[in-house]
Amino acid sequence: MKRVLFTAGMALLFMAVSAQQAGSDYIVKTKSAKKTAAVQTSDASGQESEQEKAHDFISENFKFHSLCDWKADEMKFMVMPEKYDMVVKTFHDAATGKEVSSMSLKHKIMIYKGHSESSEGHAHINFLCQDNNKMYYYEIPNGTFEDYCYGKMGVPTLAYLGDVDIARRELMGKTLFTKATLYRIDTEYDGDGYQEVTVPLNEEVKVTAVGVGTRSFPVKIIVEDKDGKEYYQNVAISKTNSGMRDDEFIMDNTKFLFAGSFELQDAIMAVSQNYAQYLNKTVHTKYTTNMISKGDGRERTLKVPRMTAFTIEAIMPKANSTYVTLTLKETESRRIYFKDVTFENTDNVAGDIDGHREDYFGYLFAMGQGRARQTSQAARAAIRQGRVILAMSEDEVAMAMGEPDNVVSSSNGRYDWIYNRSGGKLLIVKFDASGKVIGTNVDRSKAKTTTTKKKTTTTKKKK
Question: What predicted TM-score, i.e. pTM, was given to this entire model?
């Protein structure tokens, strides 16, 4: 009997060790990780548009799986708890019904086994733990499974391993180019500590490892530069169970999308050498021009003032066209803009007096820094979001909102900048006599009577 128990015990131990080794294969670290390093985390935040090639790579290889469409025995996840999960437990032991510590399940692999309803009427999402062969369930807080699955909440703590497996197959050993400036290095071999490092844009790197990242950004991609230095980014690719809405992947979170941090070699090579010479160069606008910008979760067309300086972050050729899309980072606020231009200097473009010549790069932009603009730290944050705050200067409002559609003088030297908005609304930014913002207002009553041209008789803008 003892021999039987011993044999059974050894078999279970072997299964547990084998499962643990299989799970640990997903945990990858940069060369910088130390066996005994202090935790160094950073909340520092560094937006780039997806290149068409990168978009095709994502859509062809990484399918988003809604919770409603998860297939039993086919969906595999790893438990990756965060601080919040230490307080609010995610799983119950199916055998006892008791809550289970998230830390006790950390790095364990869960296989989806479908959903069910308890005798009390609570909806359960069921999992088999590959590491210990035990069943667990996540109890949906409210409502039925059908009600819950149509949202993007998903199951907390679980990082989708399907994306990791595909990324390993498709990216290992591939050459990429960096599309962000902030990446991470590991500071702990046995922990989650990391340190942020600054990396040049469009740096050629090679993928050395792919593993699991976090629930929100499940794929950890480790790359190595030409000097042998390794760094990584955790990215969401299919966004399966990431728990984040699409509109949350903007601003500082853009780098946590694959196309926000990395560019495939084939895509970057699509930019001809004639264009590539302009990458990372500083240019400024010679004339007021319309550009697309994203701020506060919305995409807007803004009138960008002349003499505004940008760094050219990316150049994306447009299909069947002589035009390209420039990704431009405003040098002072670091806000991202997009502008379609052509580099071809032809009579039909540069000499067109009907409005197309401003699309010619050489007409619109000049090399070098434009007029210096001073901004405060608080204003820079608002500018990146496309908002106006009190005490902003004219320069700061123009950087946040673009040039006004109209300027109207008021009493005591005060004046208003008027912006036409959708739905017949007007955004009114009020300045005092010193040129500082004293308030804003949204007005619908004047929308039909106010002209979009600036009046020549209004107060001149303060310098």
Answer: 0.55
